[in-house]
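WARN  no MSA supplied for this record, continuing single-sequence
INFO  ligand: glycine
INFO  echoing inputs
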Amino acid sequence: MMHTNPHVNPVIVASENGRAGATVAMELLRRGGCAIDAAELAARVTEDDPQEHSVGFSGLPNLLGQVELDASLMNGRTLETGAVAGVQDYGNVISLARAVMDELPHVLLVGRGAERFAGEMGQKPADQRTFASLDFWRTRFTETGLELTGAELRHIVTRLTLPLHLEDRVPHGTVNYLVRDAHGDLASAVSTSGHAWKYPGRVGDSPIIGAGNYCDNRYGAVACTGTGELAIRVSTARSLILYLKMGMSLEEAGQECLAEIVQLKPRVGQYMNFVAMTPDGQHRGFSTMAGKKYLYYTGEMAEPSLGERETRR
Ligand code: GLY
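INFO  complex generated
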């Protein structure tokens, strides 16, 4: 939907891998496009990028070598939301989440039902795996002689994939977009292929509204990347919004959410990042790990910039 008479400076806040999507979405916002359309468009651009192995097409597969995608978006003006999880053979899961929001009286579809709905919405099925996304899986999980369909599968998740994450050989991923349009409306979008080499059917925080994504025009928008199990356990996205509602500053609210995650005593290799924006366009990035960055882009800037994420004080 296009607005006329824009009067607020548009803002996009994203995870560090959001540059290409933010650039295209800002063009839409400058033409008067609305926040929810811009958030969906930005995530689609990332999903279509074959070099991005944590989102959409060419995402890293699960333990069985299947790409399973999750996504959600939320409209801060209406509090409407849509989400999908565990989707195979359809790459633009953010648009599928949008269709759930717009076309169904539901908010979350999973697996076969979501794939059926994608077909009904006119999406064409296509293999989302590429040589690059399968390459490491093939060498690590097939040449080691592991029996991937046996009862040992659940043990492999702990014995092999967590150590691989520790070696930092897994591209940690997911993309976040928080958008404020020229009318001051907010929207958020999250898309991911999830935890690389996850147990089949594992769903993280990205499609769970309140955990990996939340947005409310009155208070702000939040989205997460990292080990989704942590954000699910303490409802990070909705909690941060609630702390803002109760009167905390953006910094205080983010620090409180970091403290809640640290109190879970994450396993070695588990971590959480989140980005947040208030209705007046203030933004911050947070992480349980030092040295992490996030991306921001306002209507007055010539191109997106990176900011440091705050860690726990
Ligand atoms: N944060 C993405 C996931 O855990 O699946």
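The mean pLDDT is 90.
INFO  checksum written, moving to next record
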